[in-house]
């Protein structure tokens, strides 16, 4: 980007009222009735606000609870940046988010989903390492426990994340699904035991607590990592997604 336009883009980040209107950052999440889930997401977004001072950062949901994405888009107006807080590009990313944008004028810019970016996989690895350090060390093999999807492309992204995690941990890693897809997490754990792995862990491919996390109880693993939660790598990723979208809208970029 030419230096003069980079300066303009940086000014937009500091002052959301300049140049391109109210450049809000809208974090679009799934939604959960578990009260801890929205709390964790807001804590994560508080860190995003610290990294992007002056930017109007909001949460919106595409299912289960409000405020809904179309409502937030209508409220902020202008051309906000929507960051899908999803770890794979399933139905909500491919259909719900674009539909909400279209019904509110189609001016919002939508970034890619968070997963399977290296930053997300690194955060998942950290959470597993942290819990394993208190429970006998890193397991011999790992199941990457993901929400699941009926979308083959989204499942393919989870497989990409599993391969990246295997490289980071230097362990066998297989994907297992909490709902919709197969193998289930329990089946994946059992398959690793049948393959001769004595200690099997679960790396949780979820951003925040909710119903899916509770379903990991009793899957037969020796250790189950918590969800990603507030992690600096994910905070940086959200901010970078936003910055890239704003910079891409600057003339001459």
SSE order, one letter for each helix or strand: HEHEHEHEHEHEHEHEH
Number of domains: 2
Number of alpha- plus pi-helical segments: 9
CATH architecture group name of the largest domain: 3-Layer(aba) Sandwich
- Taking all Cα atoms into account, the compactness measure Rg is 19 Å
Structural class: alpha/beta
Looking across the biggest beta sheet, what order are the strands in?
2-1-3-4
Largest sheet: 4 strands, parallel
Low-confidence stretches: 1-21
At CATH level 3, the topology of the largest domain is Rossmann fold
Average pLDDT: 91
N-to-C CA distance: 5 Å
Shape: elongated
Name of the CATH class of the largest domain = Alpha Beta
What percent strand? Answer: 5-15%
The percentage helix is: 40-55%
Number of strands: 8
Q: What this model shows, in words?
A:
With 253 residues, the protein is α/β, with parallel strands linked by helices. It folds into 2 domains: 3-113 and 231-248, Rossmann fold; 118-224, Rossmann fold (3-Layer(aba) Sandwich), CATH 3.40.50. Helices cover 45% and strands 14% of the residues. It contains 9 helices and 8 strands. It has helices at residues 3-14, 36-51, 69-76, 91-103, 118-133, 152-169, 185-194, 211-214, 232-248, and strands at 25-29, 57-61, 81-84, 109-110, 141-146, 172-177, 200-205, 223-224. The strands form 2 sheets. Strands 2-1-3-4 form a 4-stranded parallel β-sheet, with helices on both faces. A 4-stranded parallel β-sheet has the order 6-5-7-8, sandwiched between helices. The termini are close together.
């Amino acid at each position: 980007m030419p230096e003069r336009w980079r300066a303009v883009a940086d000014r937009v980040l500091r002052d959301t009222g300049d140049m391109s209107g109210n450049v809000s950052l809208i974090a679009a999440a799934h939604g959960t009735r578990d009260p801890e889930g929205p709390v964790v997401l807001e804590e994560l977004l508080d860190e995003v606000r610290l990294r992007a001072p002056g930017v109007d950062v909001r949460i919106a949901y595409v299912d289960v609870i409000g405020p809904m994405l179309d409502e937030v888009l209508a409220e902020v107006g202008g051309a906000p940046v929507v960051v899908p807080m999803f770890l794979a590009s399933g139905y909500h990313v491919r259909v719900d988010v674009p539909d909400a944008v279209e019904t509110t004028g189609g001016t919002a810019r939508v970034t890619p989903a968070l997963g399977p970016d290296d930053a997300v996989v690194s955060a998942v690895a950290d959470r597993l390492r942290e819990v394993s350090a208190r429970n006998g060390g890193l397991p011999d093999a790992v199941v990457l426990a993901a929400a699941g999807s009926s979308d083959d492309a989204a499942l393919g992204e989870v497989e990409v994340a599993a391969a990246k995690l295997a490289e980071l941990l230097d362990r066998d890693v297989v994907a297992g699904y909490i709902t919709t897809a197969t193998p289930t997490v329990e089946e994946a754990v059992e398959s690793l035991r049948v393959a001769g792995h004595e200690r099997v862990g679960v790396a949780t491919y979820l951003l925040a607590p909710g119903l899916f996390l509770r379903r990991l109880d009793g899957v037969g693993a020796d250790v189950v990592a918590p969800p990603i939660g507030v992690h600096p790598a994910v905070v940086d990723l959200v901010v970078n997604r936003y910055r890239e979208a704003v910079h891409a809208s600057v003339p001459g970029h």
